[in-house]
Amino acid sequence: MTNRRQFIAGLLATGLAPRSTWADVGAPAFLSAAARDDGTYVLCGISAALDVLFNVPLPSRGHAAAAHPTRAIAVAFARRPGTFAHAVDCATGQVIATLDAPQGRHFHGHGAFSRDGTWLFTTENDYEAGQGRVGVWDVAAGFTRADEFSSGGVGPHDIKRVPGSDTLVIANGGIDTHPDSGRTKLNIATMRPNMTYVEDGRLVETVRLEGEHHKNSIRHLAVNADGRVAFGMQWQGGGPAPALVGLHKRGNSVQLLSVADEALRHMQGYVGSIAFAVDGAQIIATSPRGGMVQQYDTDTLTIVDQNTLADASGVATTPDGVIITTGTGKLVNLHGHHAETVENTTLRWDNHLVPLG
Amino acid sequence: MKTCLAICAIAFLPGVASAQDVTQNIVNDHILPRFDVLAETGQTLEETALADCSATSEPLRAAFGTAFDAWVSVSHLRFGPTETDDRAFALAFWPDSRGATPRTLATLIRTKDPITQSADAYADMSIAARGFYAMEFLLYDATISTFGDDEYRCKLVQTVTADIAKLTQDIATDWQNSYAGLLTNPSPDGPYRSDLEAKQELFKALTTGLQLTSDARLGRPLGSFDRSHPTRAEAWRSGRSARHVALSLESLRDLATHLAQHDPPLQAELNAAFARAQTQLAAVDDPAFAGVANPQSRIKIEAIRSRVEEIRAIVRNALGSSLGVVSGFNALDGD
Hints:
The complex is a heterodimer.
Chain A lengths: L1 H12 L16 E7 L4 E6 L5 E7 L3 E6 L5 E6 L5 E6 L5 E6 L4 E9 L5 E8 L4 E8 L5 E7 L5 E6 L6 E5 L21 E6 L2 E7 L7 E8 L5 E7 L9 E4 L6 E2 L4 H6 L6 E5 L4 E6 L4 E6 L4 E7 L3 E7 L2 E6 L3 E6 L2 E6 L3 E9 L2
Chain B lengths: L1 H10 L7 H33 L6 H17 L12 H5 L8 H12 L7 H4 L8 H10 L9 H35 L10 H28 L18 H19 L4 H19 L12 H29 L12
């Protein structure tokens, strides 16, 4: 593996891969897919001041993107169950590679790069087996398929790299789908979501929720510099959800954030995106269904504030708070109890806002 | 005077109902009668199987068809009593993309598993071997309907139908005794705190029902042009695939037009869109959608799906906002 990595690093150095860095494309702070009012789809780079720096056409509706750690390359994923993803050179707007899911697999909308940017990892469905996989793609070789391994569960959705390591954390939502029936959920009665940690393709820790939570689909993740992972859930059971946000650190038991029933109901059983804020002292969760943004304190594990925001979806950390995107075209800079909004009337922001750097 | 008359006439137009009436009307006209029929036909199915359990029995097949019709007509109402103890999953394990139903039934029959001795015990059985889709295999599948010991299979048919009867009765009882009230009388402690939340639930039933009919009932057999899958059609063994689309459209049309009763132009638009889909479906003489594999007949089934997609677009773009329920770009799509 080491030799291979050195070889690939050499390829990158000789210029066989695009050379632009994020600084060359105006140093965007975030990426997000969007739908334009003319019915086309784009991937946008957004500055810390919330200006749209560039937009690159996408062939279909996007979901999330994965940003290369150094080079100005983003991989945009179609909404599930997509069978292709596009690696885009954000300097030129060119698609430099198309990633086709192998036979019997489809993407689940999320991916993450290795620490050094050598590999891309993608959540996938082995749909005949109904088992989650993680695809491994060789960046320097033009995003070719190199390997795959088990995600440790069913229906993997979000995948993140734990900062300062090459440990991957995967949200196995537990929901079995098969492309022959579109997005129809096949196993709600028996679903068993989990969150797994993987190192070098090997499962090193599995986090499960017990009892009634077997219908609480763990879908989205946020990682903090100290290794803590926040997860957002989507409730598939009847009645109100028992909890929608959880917190975990390797080797510890999982903590669910307690919320008064009333506040929990505002989220409509659905967290769309999640992020840490204020150096990990807070977690921000959005619900497009509830039109709601909630802020939680990670020490007291309770909710500290909530605000209505129509179709609130993407969220990403900033030095003093978070940026939230909405399906109505807003970029909201939320810090403490203050918020400034930039509205773009021609764009509808898609589910996720991806932080760079 | 004329102006006043015109205004008064609008105010008393029939069909312009207050918001709460929409929910009340849907519960009384759409939900309760359908679940009552399901419970009654479920009961008849159990009794018919007790009298004659053979797979080729005409009375049994007829009772099965009638009860299955009743299920399909409520199959979009997946909230509250249907979800308690996963009753709806036990009644309707479909789509079964990996063939769990025939596999589980074959294992039961081969091992003569004693779990089939009572419906109570059978309530712990894997949902793949329960409900209407398991019954279809027991009555119509060439292998399963003749597999193993006749006596054991007879008992299995009687137990599966008894289980169906109990599940459908429990759902109807819960609707009558409590859930109808919870939906129509929102309260701070109930599952619905406002009538808007109740309507949101009903709107979701409509959108997910349309999605199931488009993606699964039509999308599964259609597959792609190069790879169609006639044997992925719903209930193709009993030749009920097109019938299920018709029954679901009939129910969904009733729900959609009730939801739009405050907005006559939108109601008319929905009625017309459903009518186009239903007319085209009625003109296709292909009960099991076997024609998906033939380019000439396939195009007609594709057209029905396009009509359903047109209904979905109206519901998504107009009905949601007309009702005042959330229908945002991300909110409606999910992830």
